[in-house]
Amino acid sequence: MALPKLTKLELQIMEALWGSGASSIREIQERFPERERPAYTTVQTMVYRLEAKRAVRRVKKIGNAHVFDALISRNAVQRRLIDELLSFFGGRTQPVMAHLIESGRLTIEDVREAEHTIRRLARKDKSQ
User: Fold this and answer.
1) How far from 109 is each of 105, 113, 114, CA to CA, in Å?
2) Could you tell me the CATH number of the domain that includes residue 14?
3) How confident is the model at residue 1, as a pLDDT?
């Protein structure tokens, strides 16, 4: 199944679910910073849209409140976003990497982690 495209607010709602697990709409709303908190009905509408997109599901009902949980993983959504970003550059990673380096957002630890991943994938390829 293809991953749904998510809006910025939908991603923020998903972050609340990934961070805290199954939650009611009120609990999701309360995880937003107070000064940026959307109205309860806005969060409710967005959760229902996420449910229609099959990104979340209702897992139980407590009184009048439904509890929702994520059906798609943070990792899967991040991969899709990265793939979409790279599509703007014709699939080339170099412009993105150059920006990360020039902006100071790519740390030595990030480079070490990337090297570790490359070595792990190379070993995996050799064993197959």
Assistant:
1) 11, 6, 9
2) 1.10.10.10
3) 61
Query: What is d(CA 125, CA 12) in angstroms, rounded to the nearest whole number?
Result: 36
Q: Which residue matches tokens 């150059």?
A: 98
Per-residue pLDDT of 62-108, as tens digits, reads 999 999 999 999 999 999 999 999 999 999 999 998 999 899 999 88
Rounded CA gap, 115 and 104, in Å?
Answer: 18
Q: Is 66 helix (H, G, I), strand (E, B) or coil?
A: strand
Helix (H, G, I), strand (E, B) or coil at 70: strand
Instruction: Answer yes or no: is pLDDT of 39 > 70.
Output: yes
Domain total for the chain? 2
Q: Encoding tokens for residue 39?
A: 């109205």
Do 63 and 79 belong to one domain?
yes
Residues in the chain: 128
Angle 61-56-40 (CA atoms, 0-180°, nearest 5)?
Answer: 65
3-class DSSP assignment, residue 39: coil
Q: Is the pTM of this model over 0.85?
A: no
The rounded mean pLDDT for the chain is 93
Q: Which amino acid belongs to residue 67?
A: V
